[in-house]
Amino acid sequence: MNSESEQMNNHPSIPVTMPSLAPLEEYVELLRGAWSRGILTHNGPLVQQLERDLCKKLGLSSFVAVSNGTIALQMAIKALGLKGEIITTPFTWIATVSAIKWEGCVPIFCDIDPETLNLDPCNIEPLITDRTCAIMPVHVFGNPCDVQSIEDIATGYGLKVIYDGAHAVGSMYRGRSLLECGDITATSLHATKLLNTAEGGGCITGDFELHERLRRIRFFGHDEARDIVEDGFNGKMTEVHAALGIANLKYYDAVLADRKRKYAIYRDALSGVASIRFQSIRSGEANCSYFPVIFTSESEMSKAEEKLKRHDIHPRRYFYPSVNTFGKIVEYQPAPVSEDITRRILCLPLYYGLTDKDLYRTIDILVS
Ligand SMILES: Cc1ncc(COP(=O)(O)O)c(C=O)c1O
Questions:
Q1: Predicted confidence band of residue 92 (pLDDT cuts 50, 70, 90)
Q2: Ligand 1 touching residue 315 (CB < 6 A)
Q3: Cα 91 to chain centroid, rounded
Q4: Is 190 touching ligand 1 by the criterion CB < 6 Å?
């Protein structure tokens, strides 16, 4: 029998994620059109097609394709003309908070529900002041927030709601796309997301006026007559990125089904492990795009991380650390639940190209 190190060397390295990619020739075919037209950007035909195709596939009322998810968040804040404090979650990627700050607003951290990992609506009201203008929750790992409670609070206090739906393509809420919730949802089409354009993102709103404003903001604030009517910037998606999105969208159903199948395998196999619990998700609605595991302690988490890394398997501490603790960019506001969970959570490898063999190998190492 081979030694442990010899056995390990026979196995490929397993990253936490890999992009889902259409066959290269299908992408190149779309690029040929762009080459022959000589149009690479400025709301070209491929961007328009991607927006149409996404609306059809995901059942969206609108989609404004942009250069990345962070810009989509900033555009949402700009389009709603927000000034003042925005209540958001500390259990997120830094982009949620940097978008708020870049738009001149102040992030106010609302602690999370330890089960769903989403902003806990019960913690919102004590944070509302006369400076509060909006709530910006994140659908963490594609798990829908308590949209109804958040909407009730926002309506009661006259606040806007922007969802950070960076993880939420493919998730549902009460029979419709989760991306349709709130005044605006900003999503990401980054390489690591379920559907990707390498870099990219989009804004979704059911309000026609807001939709038109978002389109103008994306294009330097120009209206159709090329007059500058908004405080805009360059948020445009290129044809090269849109082509990748169109090519990948053909495989979206397969990628989503694959994520759900592998998520279920992980969950079944790991449910007996005493040191692990799972995010509680809205079953049938969450897209299962990540597989986070929450350990009983930081040392249990570190032991598991080291064990996997010894076998060249690379889970990710996501999200870590809690964003309210980034002292160089935000004033510290306590969020004990988020601070606790960020110390002991790991996302396990989950992506379309992950073979069942490598999935089971990851499980075997964790349970051993
Ligand atoms: C929760 C969350 N919000 C926003 C973003 C920013 O998206 P992008 O990388 O497309 O700018 C990310 C990126 O991963 C994210 O995870």
A1: very high
A2: no
A3: 12
A4: yes
Give 189 Cα–ligand 1 centroid separation in angstroms: 9
For 113, residues 6+ apart whose C-beta sits below 8 A from its C-beta are 119, 120, 337
Mean pLDDT value of segment 156-164: 98
3 in a domain, yes or no?
Answer: no
Instruction: Give the C-alpha separation, 266 to 91, whole Å.
Output: 23
One domain for residues 120 and 261: no
- Which domain covers residue 267, as residue numbers? 252-367
The CB of 91 under 6 Å from ligand 1? The reply is: no
Instruction: Check the CA dihedral 236-240-241-245 and report its sign.
Output: positive
The mean per-residue pLDDT over the stretch 292-310 comes to: 98
Last residue of a domain, one of 220, 249, 278: 249
Residue 159 token pair: 């606040």
Query: Residue 3's pLDDT is what?
Result: 37
Give the pTM. 0.96
The domain that holds 300 is classified in CATH as 3.90.1150.10
Q: Is 239 found in the same domain as 261?
A: no
- On average, the pLDDT of the chain sits at 96
CATH number at residue 105: 3.40.640.10
Q: Does the pLDDT value for residue 5 go beyond 80?
A: no
In short, whether 95's Cβ falls inside 6 Å of ligand 1 is yes
Ligand 1 atom at shortest distance from the alpha carbon of 92: 1
Mutate to test the pocket of ligand 1, among 188, 287, 318 (most ligand atoms within 8 A of CB): 188
User: In terms of domains, do 72 and 217 share one?
Assistant: yes
59: left (phi over 0), alpha (psi -120 to 50) or beta: left
